[in-house]
Structures are given as C-alpha cells and as structure tokens.
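Why do we care about 3D structure at all? Because function follows from shape, and shape follows, mostly, from sequence. That is the central idea of this module. The next example makes it concrete: a single protein chain, its amino acid sequence, and then its structure expressed as tokens.
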Amino acid sequence: MSEAHGYGMLIMVKMEKQFGIKTKQYFDGMFAYAKDHPSDINPSFMAWRQYRQEDGTMVDDKNNGVTDSATDGDMDIEYALLLADQLWGSDGEINYKREAIKIINSLMGSVVNKDEWTLKLGDWVKNNNPKYGTASRTSDWMIGHISTFYDVTGDERWKKVLVRMIEMITGIQDNFSPETGLLPDFVWKQEGELIPVDGDFFGEQKGPYYSYNACRVPWRLADGYFITKDEKVKHQLEKMNTWIMENHTKYPFKN
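And the structure:
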C-alpha cells in the first residue's frame, strides 16, 4: 500500500539523520518503486496497492481496470522527499525538492476539494460524487505537512486547507467527542454539517468511530503542533491526550 510505502520512506530519512545508518540507496530505491507504480488517474501519485505474483513480480491493484491513489500515502512520500532534500540535498541523481513540489502541486490539483477546502480520499474522487465528494479521512489531516506545503510553494490555497482542517478538528471534538477528543475514521458533509460517516461507508462498520485509521491522528496532531506551534492544535492534542492518560488502564489494548 502507498501508505506503508510513505511510512518506509520517512523511516529511511530518520534512520540516517538520527542514528547515522546509511539509507540513501534504499530511500532512492523506494522512490523509484513508487515512480514505477503510478496511479492511472494522476501519474504524479503512487498506485494505492500492489500484489505479488507467483513469479515474484508486483502488479498494481485494478479497480475496474484503473489504478488510483490514497491521499495519505502520497502526502508522506512527498514529505519524505522534502526531508531527503534537507538531509542529502537535491544535486544528485534525484532532485528531491523538485519531485516533492510536483507532488504538492498535484495534491492541490487532484485531491483538494476547493469548494470545501478539504482533502478528498484520493485522485479518484470527484467533488460532485454524492457519497465521497465531501468525505475526508481524519488521518489525512496532517497539519504539519500542510503547513510545510505552503512554506515550500507559497501557494496561499494551502493556508485555506490548513485553516479548514483545524476548524474541522475543533468542530468534531466539540460536537461529537467533547470528553475524549477522539476523531472518527471518516467524516463527510451532510445537510451543511460536518459529521461522522454512516456505518456502511466503504463497506466497513468502523468508519464513524475512532479505529485503525483515526488511531494515527494523535501522532499527526503532535507532529502538526511541533511544526506550527499553533495553540488551537495544542488544545486539540491536549484534550485527546488527557482522556488517553486518564483512561488507558480502563481500556487496555488487546491483541
């Protein structure tokens, strides 16, 4: 999955920066793999999923003959490229910064709903899609990434996305999780209001709840506050952390 690929590229950069483990060749190989498996809709993005065949080769997932993207995977791949530029520079075989900006601009063109200034689920979603057009995955709300997109490109539209993202987090916490601060996996706009999705969203019953997508939100919020130092983000994170710290012994994690 492109999400896991993005995690891996982030890890490669951090392993060398923080621990001195030489990872550049592996990072470059991972980026080459992403480039070799593009989305059919926007080739700047990585196809969301691949399958290993019996002969060891990898083929892209086919959905009605078309491969498409997942927003969070491409956001992490792009952000890893910016970190790679800071660590290794862009004078070598790969111009990391140029490749990152290409993805940033494609994200604005293909996955930002400019009626709502929200992030769509991938390049396959049209704004007028009655089910998915206004839907957004809360684990894609990477405040730190979005802030960096603006810093790198100067595109004022990313500020609109950032402001909207912070507003949405506050609205969900105030209206649906005032005690816990937790966010659901997915939200959408219904009758003018941003609310958790129905239980059958994506054929999953966990969409309206804090589950395996939204469990990444505390990490994303912490990273967002570290980068932006925004007091609203700090308050959102504190609300969530307070509940977690007070209740972690009541609801232990189970395998």
